[in-house]
């Protein structure tokens, strides 16, 4: 049996201004039904911790538009690489992934990452369609240690590949070809910067293509043409759906998956809504963050930390919602060297100081990190999962609106482990351009 589709609302989350909200007290009580426990919170998870910091570093560039990447794939590939390094190279890699709580507990970050990768495979085909690949390319490098190759493949799905003897153009062609296959045949955007792999360069590459399957479809009949108020105003196809929940049979505890959570968050700086929508079979969910007013995401992003987001998600409670989302694809190709360096990964790039002695015992003065590349694509479409749908037609009552006609941030989290599979933003939706005064 599949979980019902309950709906929950996060009411006025006071981050600094503490105040109650009328709708909190009017929350209806439902008969006690065992609610599935919520996924582990973002705080303490290495993929969230790295993901949010990387995202903020990316967004400090004004040129960043519609970024999307997989924190889980970057984190697990860097974890694998950390296993092949020593000295400050290793400690800087470790620092990227360590969270305050894992540091305190002295816990390894390898197990949660490796576990999350397994969990994804399990959810693939039911909660979403996913293509995901990770590779470590090496350029004219000394032979890679068998033990390292085996461990990184088995635990972190990081396969080793050699770049050919050709020039940087040939390398680029090889990388793009690999990414295309990793994206299930989709052509990624060109890399934003040239890749100049010197002899001894190691290049981490991740490719991920994701399409979530909803618990109920957004039907064709309920789509129409509307305006998306992004960087440019464009005409797009919007899909609408009432997320109906008969309160009946739903235990309105906080934001466990299998719930839709919408919230109005009030901080001293910004109002925004947070909505968590479970995907088919509840093995993953989509979390959307939408500023209350039409504006760019800049103000929201300045506030966004993993601690804050955890708090917001925790406060989420239940309510009926109508959701309107643009049909869109968010696709990006990123080179993360600058961002990772800004987060403290400095030694790995330098041939003279990098220490990848676990990758190869002949690495000295040669092996170094030459790039960390991401190809990712997220499709927002209306489809639901296939199979027995045990959802009743319900009376929605007075639903709250979640009308995403302006830029929002999107996350996909794995239910079983809580890991952050994907994170991105829709700043601009493709469509016929409209004039601002409309
Ligand atoms: C997900 O399933 C599809 C179809 O079975 C398969 O092609 C793809 O490789 C799977 N993805 C992952 C990451 O296992
Ligand atoms: C979601 O995760 C929770 C906690 O790990 C688990 O108890 C529950 O069964 C999961 N739900 C699904 C549908 O996998
Ligand atoms: C997104 O991409 C998919 C597959 O490439 C395509 O079928 C779909 O029409 C695209 N959606 C939009 C809104 O462009």
Offer a quick outline of the entry.
Strand 15 (408-414) and strand 16 (420-426) form a beta hairpin.
Structural features, described:
- The protein has eleven helices and 17 strands.
- With 438 residues, it is α+β, with helices and mostly antiparallel strands.
- The chain folds into two domains: 7-42 and 214-327 and 392-430, Roll (Alpha-1-antitrypsin, domain 1), CATH 2.30.39.10; 64-212 and 330-378, Antithrombin, subunit I, domain 2 (Antithrombin, Chain I, domain 2, 2-Layer Sandwich), CATH 3.30.497.
- Strands 1-8-9-10-15-16-2 form a seven-stranded mixed β-sheet. The chain has a five-stranded mixed β-sheet with strand order 4-3-5-13-12, with helices on both faces.
- α3 (71-82) packs antiparallel against α7 (146-156).
- The longest helix has 15 residues, at 168-182.
- One 2-acetamido-2-deoxy-beta-D-glucopyranose is lined by residues 327-329, 379.
